[in-house]
Specification:
It is built from 30 helices and 26 strands. The protein is α/β, with parallel strands linked by helices. It folds into five domains: about 180 residues, no CATH class; about 90 residues, no CATH class; about 130 residues, Dna Topoisomerase Vi A Subunit, Chain: A, domain 2; about 220 residues, 3-Layer(aba) Sandwich (Rossmann fold); about 120 residues, no CATH class. The structure holds adenosine-5'-triphosphate. It comes from Geodia barretti.
Length: about 800
């Protein structure tokens, strides 16, 4: 039977692990390749020019630690960041300069230069030990209950087409072995008849000339030896609102130097239940499949998911690795590992998002060696293999070189155009979940566009744009905020309220819980405040796009950024036009969406703003792809007007209602409750469900040993899945435990719901389902007659 949960098989922290970071204004290291070369030359370092890095013998490696390692240091060409894996030295370019000046060695390669930054040996060893201990506590696949095996196959889309071991899922098992463990003897020749699809049988021949063959090893392990030592499915705990929960996960090891250094874990489940984790939580990202790559391999396939990697490898036998965060990011930390390859195939899937990610990654990897693989317009390698494709090898052969030229022909664009036609929905961009009417007008948020956003002073521009960007960020759009008008602490506080849907000043005990969730968003802030030099802002943006794969940059606002004093000699309009042109260029060349807030010129307060009201010349609106205007209405209600939409021309008005407790304009929480009351089952397209926890629970969770659990898929959706798990497990509904805030005796929400029988039912049933605490909670927070007015407004927005 599968192993019971032990202390060693303990809880893990969900990924992507991202901290909210501030990119210090002006202090982002700016270095050119010329400068790096000059420093290396002047210090007499011998180096070669790699694809993404300069490669040199590490001057910091000491004999002991680097034994067996390659003593190779990589200096990133774009950032100047340095890495030497054997001695675990890593740092920024400025660190490197500091070490070099300290060493003052006439012959640095041979002298004893003090190692400056690496973590202590004990730290590194403890981290590796934790990973290996975790890895060894996995439960063998063949010992997992059949029901879990089926669930896992279904969840990961793995079609088992034969009764033997040669399905993709089984094959994946072999990736869990270290080279030492896999030194098994391979029989002279083994024939498998597998992957039957529609009557077609693919015969795979294994040759004895291969010292080690993954598939045969599994074959031997399973059928000759009868038992495997380690597998990759095991039991792990996740922290939930109700406490610890035991769930099945698949573990993907990241190897370095022949040993497991970290394990990525994916929860077995469908849709929003898919969660990721890393053990240990702290450490560098790695590549799945690295242990299968020989040091002299000259080509590699990079996929977005682990099972895609296995599928490609199975079908083509070409060295293949999977990225740590799929199509979301290519962390610079893994670039040195990929330096050895002269040819890199990027096979991230067939959709528009995958294509865009592949193009972005190709620029980071060095465009000249990159080839883009696309089997057809929508399928991943695994899906293709499941369909019985025997053409994965020819897809690799037909891979197109990455086009990074000024002149292209239609022939080169032909497939991309076809893919866009097939994936019209994806091309339209990421949809706002909180603002469906905005999605209806703009269709989505697309990379490479410039949005100009305006509204009168104090209308709520920052508040609204914050919620709009948060909505996208929760869906995985990596976001960089440049707030030149209000400090980052205030901005983050506002976003946290919008994220939790709570007035956290009244629920301080829940701060830890929500902060832990919020911290996992791919959200970054520039450290500028007040006027700033546009070139430093652009440099910071470029750095963030390279290092953090930023997809959305917000400049709030342009007038504050430009300031008055900076360009006294120049016409203000000219300065603004220049800045707008730079942002336009940045958006197009980097394929990043840039949103710029611009104040309007002073106009009569009674009249509505128009496109022509935007301060400056017509340049800003001409350059923009989208123009959004926040129109002030009566009381707390406002309108967001779309006055320009270059994508498909649809214009429109989005009704907004300001909710003071959560500083939101979307009415998300009310809409959520109403839907749960009216419709049964929310489905995949439901907006993220945020939930209320009681103060006591919040406090417990924020101090719990693994309270930093976080999600890969939109956080709200994951929390919702947790709620479902809870209620299905028959645990006490959360609403019953939620502590209502003290205060007002009014019941505005309940009253307004009572007007509509279906909504009233919903309010009641939502209590039973675990989120009704919010109704109790909010009734204490929403005060005065405005509250009841707000509530009926929101219901009407929902109805509309
Ligand atoms: N509809 C609203 N009703 C009441 N208060 C609001 C509304 N919208 C925003 N606020 C509040 O008004 C204040 C100013 O909002 P915000 O900073 O978003 O406006 P802004 O348009 O960006 O201002 P500025 O013109 O100074 O840039 C904030 O405290 C915000 O919470």
């Amino acid at each position: 039977m599968w192993r019971p949960l032990t202390d060693t098989c303990r809880t893990i922290v969900l990924v992507p692990r991202r901290a909210l970071r501030t990119l210090e204004g002006g202090s982002v290291p700016h270095v050119t390749q010329k400068q790096i070369r000059a420093v290396l030359d002047s210090n007499k370092y011998k180096y070669s020019v790699g694809h993404a890095s300069f490669v040199l013998q590490c001057p910091f490696c000491d004999g002991q630690r680097s034994s067996g390692g390659r003593r190779t240091m990589f200096v990133n060409k774009t950032t100047g960041g340095v890495v030497c894996k054997p001695c675990d030295v890593r740092g920024a370019w400025t660190d490197f300069l500091g070490w070099v000046s300290k060493s003052k060695a006439p012959n640095p390669a041979s002298s004893k230069v003090p190692r400056v930054v690496p973590p202590s040996d004990t730290q590194q060893l403890a981290s590796r030990r934790a990973a290996q201990q975790f890895w060894s506590s996995t439960t063998p696949w063949e010992e997992t209950p059949a029901i879990i095996q089926d669930q896992a196959r279904r969840a990961f889309g793995i079609k088992v087409s034969c009764g033997l071991c040669y399905c993709v899922f089984c094959v994946a098992v072999r990736w869990s072995f270290s080279p030492a463990e896999t030194a098994a003897k391979v029989p002279e020749e083994v024939h498998h008849s597998h992957c039957q699809d529609g009557g077609e049988v693919t015969h795979v021949k294994q040759h004895s000339s291969r010292a080690y063959d993954p598939w045969c090893y599994y074959y031997l392990g399973m059928h000759t030896c009868g038992k495997l030592k380690k597998e990759f499915v095991f039991l792990v705990q996740f922290h939930t609102v109700s406490g610890r929960e035991e769930v099945w996960c698949v573990a993907y090891p990241w190897y370095e130097g022949g040993e497991v250094v970290r394990v990525k874990v994916e929860r077995v489940g469908e849709g929003p239940q898919r969660q990721l984790a890393l053990e240990p939580a702290e450490g560098s990202p790695g590549l799945f499949g690295w242990n299968t790559i020989s040091s002299d391999a000259k080509e590699v396939v990079i996929t977005g998911s682990e099972f895609d990697a296995v599928a490609v490898h199975q079908a083509t036998q070409v060295p293949t690795v999977a990225l740590p965060s799929g199509t979301l990011a290519l962390p610079p930390e893994v670039l040195p590992q990929l330096e050895q390859f002269e040819k890199v195939y990027l096979w991230l899937g067939g959709g528009t998002t995958a294509r865009q990610a592949a193009s972005h990654f190709a620029r980071k990897l060095g465009p000249n060696r990159c080839h883009l693989v696309c089997l057809d317009s929508s399928s991943s390698p695994l899906a293709a293999l499941n369909r019985g494709h025997t053409h994965l090898m020819s897809a690799l052969k037909n891979a197109k070189p990455f086009v990074n030229k000024q002149i292209v022909t239609f022939q080169q664009l032909r497939e991309e155009v076809y893919s866009e036609l097939c994936n019209a929905n994806q091309v339209a961009g990421v949809k706002w979940q909180r603002f469906p009417k905005l999605t209806q007008a703009l269709k989505g948020h697309r990379p490479g566009e410039l949005t100009v956003f305006t509204g009168v002073t104090g209308a709520g521009k920052t508040t609204l744009i914050s919620e709009l960007s948060l909505d996208l960020c929760q869906q995985g759009v990596a976001t960089l905020w440049g707030s030149f008008e209000i400090r980052n602490v205030r901005l983050a506080k506002m976003m946290l309220k919008q994220f939790s849907g709570l007035n956290l000043e009244r629920h301080l005990k829940q701060y830890g819980y929500w902060a832990n969730q919020f911290q996992q968003l791919p959200l970054y802030f520039m450290g500028f405040y007040g006027a700033a030099d546009i070139s430093s802002v652009l440099e910071t943006m470029a750095h963030a796009v390279y290092v953090y794969d930023i997809q959305h940059v917000i400049i709030d606002n342009l007038q504050f950024m430009l300031g008055a004093s900076h360009h006294a000699s120049l016409d203000r309009y000219a300065v603004q036009n220049m800045a707008v042109a730079e942002f336009r260029k940045f958006a197009s060349s980097r394929n990043v969406h840039v949103t710029v807030v611009i104040h309007p010129r002073k106009e009569s307060e009674s009249s509505e703003l128009t496109t022509a009201s935007i301060f400056g010349t017509a340049k800003a609106t001409q350059e923009a792809d989208n123009v959004l205007i926040l129109q002030s209405g009566h009381g707390s209600s406002k309108l967001l007007q779309v006055t320009k939409n270059r994508f498909d021309g649809d214009l429109g008005r989005v009704p907004l209602v300001f909710e003071k407790n959560s500083l939101t304009f979307s009415g998300l929480h009310l809409r959520q409750r109403k839907r749960e009351g009216v419709a049964s089952g929310s489905g995949d397209h439901a907006p993220p469900a945020l939930r209320v926890v009681s103060d006591t629970e919040g406090a417990q969770m924020s101090h719990a040993p693994f309270s930093e659990s976080h999600t890969h898929t939109p956080i709200g959706a994951t929390l919702k899945s947790v709620a479902e798990t809870e209620s299905s497990a028959g645990s006490r509904p959360l609403a019953a435990r939620a502590v209502p805030a003290s205060g007002s005796k009014q019941k505005p929400f309940r009253r307004s719901f009572r007007k509509k029988p279906s909504a009233a039912v919903g309010a009641k049933s939502s209590e039973g389902r675990g989120d009704g605490g919010r109704a109790e909670d909010e009734k204490g927070e929403t005060s005065g007659s405005k509250a009841s007015e707000l509530c009926s407004d929101c219901v009407s927005v929902v109805n509309s």
